[in-house]
Structures are given as structure tokens and as C-alpha cells.
Amino acid sequence: MRAKVTWAGGTQLDCENERGQSIDVDWEDGPSPMQIFLQMIGACSIVDVVVGLKNREFGQVWVDLDADRREEYPRSFTKVNMTYHVEGDVPEKLVRRTIEKSHEKYCSVSNSLDENIEIVWDLVLHQK
Questions:
Q1: pLDDT tens profile 97-123
Q2: How far apart are CA 24 and CA 31, in angstroms?
Q3: Is CATH 3.30.300.20 correct for 33-126?
Q4: How deeply is 78 buried, as exposed, middle or buried, from its count of CB atoms within 10 A (0-12, 13-18, 19+)?
Q5: pLDDT tens, position by position, 40-66
Q6: CA within 13 Å, CB half, 95
Q7: Which of 79, 85, 88, 123 sits a CA distance of 20 to 30 A from 49?
Q8: Under DSSP, is residue 50 helix (H, G, I), strand (E, B) or coil?
Q9: Is 45 exposed, middle or buried (0-12, 13-18, 19+ CB in 10 A)?
Q10: What are φ and ψ of residue 105, in 5° steps?
Q11: What is the pTM of this model?
């Protein structure tokens, strides 16, 4: 895996992967790198949830996240709180097991975090 990040002047960054796909970041007028990192923890885990429910009828899936950070530098995360939401008539036990497996094994982003960072999650099922 390869990437390139280029300062584009001011508070702007151009982020590009090896396939030429890019994300523009503005750390003042847009999401900061830490905000994007937090969102990617959710994005990676949602992939696991959606794939885990592939044979089930479900609607929207989303996760609300908030994180605590250290006051001193480096201002790394100390705790990440995640509330998963799944619409549909899906077995709660299956969804919970899928989320657990995501954080134990499959989500490369959350598994790349320092082991001292606490990840706490909950699940809300919404009937369609």
C-alpha cells in the first residue's frame, strides 16, 4: 500500500493513493486528520457489519462516534465511543457478534490503534 500527501498551501493537503484516487483535506475549514481518523474507525467497522449481514434484509447502517483525547501532546485518542445503528429485522446476537469480530480481528483501522485506547460500543436496532 502506498500513499502521498502534499501540502497544497495554507491549511490544505492533497492526499493520493497509488491508484490516483484522492481526498482533499483542509485542517482549518474541513475535517482535521484526527477527525478523519475517527471516521475511518467507523467506516472500517461498518464494512465488516455490512459484509456480515449480507444474507439478511436490512436498510441503513451507521455509527455515531465520539472520542476522548489526551490534553497534552501527542493529543492521541484515549477512548473511542461507538454507537452502531442497524435498520431491519436482523438478529441482535448476529449483529453484536459481527461487531465484536470486527474489533477483535477484521477492522484493520481499530486494530492499528494503541492497545491502551479503549473502544466502547453499543448497538441500536431500528425496526423497518
A1: 999 999 999 999 999 999 999 999 999
A2: 10
A3: yes
A4: middle
A5: 999 999 999 999 998 899 999 999 999
A6: 24
A7: 79
A8: helix
A9: buried
A10: -140, -45
A11: 0.91
